[in-house]
Structure to design on (405 residues):
């Protein structure tokens, strides 16, 4: 049994409980064994003027687009399909080796900023090789695209057969640090009759209500996506059979949370329930100039909302905490403790990992970030994390009881 080590810092933010001024967190092996107020036990290590927060949870990435930073400028909302054309053109320039290099770059950036759990949309399972070798938990959402029913079924079958091969292959990693899931890509790129049953099984993700053109397609079967898909030679009107609400209906068979990525144009009365999550990507949302995101209206209804970064094709970096800080800057009425929860425990819950990580609780994995904070007092200690004067010094991240290099 590994020796127990007790850490202290200026503030400890369990997230599941109120912050602890000079609190302590005790780690034994890979596990948190105590989280206590100041004076309960003598610390072994004082981390100084930092906040200890749970490891960050990035619910939505496209690691394979990490080489596109600055190369595909976001458009305005009405021309979103022009941006998609740019993404497709970019992907056609990348060799398999290029894609693997891009994935490693994006993953390293996530880890450097303190991400300990992520959800990656992966084309053909490409990110598996890098993710399973890294110090991170992950849900890998295998992206499925196909308006033609036979094409869609074929790609789902590819998912199942490849997952079995990877799981049983010689490079299978130890432990249970990652999981597979499906991502029917978006309402405009999948056969509705085939994709809706996949959504009914839970544990999946779909891009939904990302642009006004998508709403026009679902409502009227017209608009920019018809031209876009026709240009690609894949337009199939018979595949587009559902309305927006059909994608969010609750099915009794759903076993795990479903993720609805973006939700920029979701009506606030959309019938979401406890098993479903909106993943809000704040800086990507702002880069496209979308109207104010309705996440607070959904939270007021009890709907879970977590954060993602999206990809470096639409975001300057993959710093999940920067997403929360950006929201604080544009929506200062949102409580800071809620923003921190959205960046940690809510995200872990959304991805189905809340029993293992997402908060600093006894029995959970010792995943946390030592975050430099401003050298001042604050009535609400969360302001030390989200205030404009936060230091830019490097963060230290512990994953499963070991500090990352």
């Amino acid at each position: 049994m590994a020796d127990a080590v007790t850490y202290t810092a200026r503030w400890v933010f369990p997230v599941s409980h109120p912050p602890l001024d000079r609190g302590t967190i005790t780690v034994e092996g890979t596990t948190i064994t105590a989280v206590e107020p100041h004076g309960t036990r003598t610390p072994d290590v004082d981390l100084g003027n930092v906040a200890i927060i749970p490891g960050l949870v990035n619910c939505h990435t496209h690691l394979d687009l990490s080489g596109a930073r600055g190369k595909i400028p976001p458009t305005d909302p009405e021309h979103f399909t022009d941006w998609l054309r740019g993404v497709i053109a970019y992907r056609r320039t990348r060799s398999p080796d290029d894609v693997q290099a891009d994935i490693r770059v994006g993953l390293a950036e996530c880890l450097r900023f303190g991400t300990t759990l992520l959800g990656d949309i992966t084309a053909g399972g490409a990110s598996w090789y890098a993710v399973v070798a890294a110090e991170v938990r992950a849900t890998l959402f295998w992206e499925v695209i196909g308006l033609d029913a036979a094409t869609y079924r074929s790609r789902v079958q590819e998912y199942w057969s490849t997952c079995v091969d990877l799981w049983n292959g010689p490079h299978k990693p130890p432990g249970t640090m990652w999981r597979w899931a499906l991502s029917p890509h978006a309402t405009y790129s999948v056969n509705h009759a085939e994709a809706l049953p996949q959504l009914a099984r839970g544990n999946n993700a779909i891009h939904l209500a990302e642009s006004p053109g998508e709403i026009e397609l679902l409502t009227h079967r017209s608009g920019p996506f018809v031209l876009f898909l026709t240009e690609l030679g894949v337009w199939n009107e018979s595949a587009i059979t559902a309305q927006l609400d059909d994608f969010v209906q609750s099915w009794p068979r759903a076993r795990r949370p479903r993720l609805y990525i973006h939700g920029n144009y979701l009506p606030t009365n959309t019938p979401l329930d406890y098993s479903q999550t909106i993943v809000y990507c704040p800086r990507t949302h702002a880069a496209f100039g979308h109207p104010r995101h309705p996440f607070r209206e959904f939270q007021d209804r009890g709907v879970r909302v977590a954060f993602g970064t999206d990809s470096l094709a639409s975001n300057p970096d993959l710093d999940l905490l920067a997403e929360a800080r950006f929201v604080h800057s544009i929506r200062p009425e949102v409580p800071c403790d809620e923003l921190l929860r959205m960046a940690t425990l809510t995200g872990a819950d959304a991805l189905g990992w809340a029993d293992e990580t997402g908060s600093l609780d006894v029995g959970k994995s010792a995943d946390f970030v030592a975050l430099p904070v401003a050298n001042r007092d604050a009535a609400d200690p969360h302001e030390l994390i989200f205030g404009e004067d936060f230091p830019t010094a490097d963060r230290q991240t512990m994953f499963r009881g070991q500090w990352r290099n």
Observations:
- DSSP finds 13 helices and 18 strands in the chain.
- The longest strand covers residues 115-123.
